Amino acid sequence: MPSPNWKMGIVPLALLATLSGCSFHASVGGRSNVPEEQVPPPPAESRPGAPEPHRTTRVTVKGNQLVMPGRFVFEQGSPNFAPNAGNEALIAELRLYLNETPRVTRLRIEGHTDNTLPDEQALELSGRRASMVKQWLIDAGVHPGRLLAVGFGQSRPIANNADPDGRAKNDRIDFRIAEIEGKPYLNPDPLAGGTEFP
What is the pLDDT of residues 68-77, one digit of tens each? Predict the structure, then answer.
């Protein structure tokens, strides 16, 4: 006995599978129910509600240092991020790196400054900036136990502080792998001689 679905015009799946190799047109009132040209459905990633396609981070590693696809920019003399400077995109890259690299169990966020402030103020500013990055990462979903915020002040310049370009290079945030799978990596001291900030 035919299925009741036949009466409603619903074709059973088994019959569709049998007919999938056939080509036919059905007309109702002189119009075809099959469009002239069949447009394939959009790819999954462009359909509403579809998960985002897998993306790999642009962060790379050299030794124990993460090489970022940009640099964090802060307001002058402040631990606050400069607005519209791309800091949020860098936070997203770091979160993606940590998600893709669970072996990195602790990441050291290092704050550094130029030599325009007295030592104590430079240390405080560098540590508060490292803490700001740490907090943004926590807010983005990174477990706090994987992050160390460490200030170094002006003690580790990478360029000459005598000119503006050199000072801009020294005023920075660096990222170094402190632990892999719970064990110190390339340095027995997870703080590497810096001062930890909450």
Answer: 999 999 999 9
